[in-house]
Amino acid sequence: MALVPYVETAEMGLQRFHKPLATFSFANHTIQIRQDWKQLGVAAVVWDAIFHLWLSFCPEAYGLEDGAHVTITDRKVALEFLKSNVQANLPPHIQPKAVVKELTWGQNLGSFSPGEFDLILGADIIYLEETFADLLQTLEHLCSNHSMVLLACRIRYERDYNFLAMLERQFTVSKVHYDSEKDVHIYKAQRRCLREDL
Question: According to the UniProt entry, where is the signal peptide (predicted)?
């Protein structure tokens, strides 16, 4: 679990995470996400980095404009909560293309085929140093040489750069976007080919 400073009396900041419902508009659709900070903490709120990832991500560029098969993951404790948000926001005819599946980084990776995913999106997942090795192991397992990873994050601590350095040993990494107002970075990563390492 992450330690996040919080002041309940603050007018801005983290108090928005205590609202039971967050409403957003994306691509002419209104999305309402239930939040439950008290029950699930950081796993059940919408963080700023997702907006930047969404705004910079163009489904057409990845051949996804007609709808892709999507796997949405989280730890077991948050799965039912995640499923309810997916069901509440996806039209019934699209829901079969979205699978909600348990994933704890570095654990039970055999439930996913190696290199199974063409595109992996992650928002605000770089924050807890003790998870960095497991996150890297998970990305290595899920990616083929043709997979692309897009990670949106704030660099909150100097240690967050440690993950990026670890990632660069196995992946070619480039920063593709930075919002100085929100301090959100978006990195693109692709697995290094063997020839690159020689």
Answer: none
Asked if residue 5 belongs to a domain, the reply is: no
Containing structural domain, residue 70: 48-191
> 98, 72 in Cβ contact below 8 A?
yes
Shortest CA distance to 117 belongs to which of 93, 99, 96, 90?
99
Query: For the chain, how big is the Rg over CA atoms in Å?
Result: 17
**In the chain, how many domains are there?**
1
Residues 6+ apart with CB under 8 A from 69: 97, 98, 99
Residues with Cβ within 8 Å of residue 57, at least 6 apart in sequence: 121, 150
| 168, two tokens | 């660069």
108 dihedral zone (left: phi>0; alpha: psi -120 to 50; beta): left
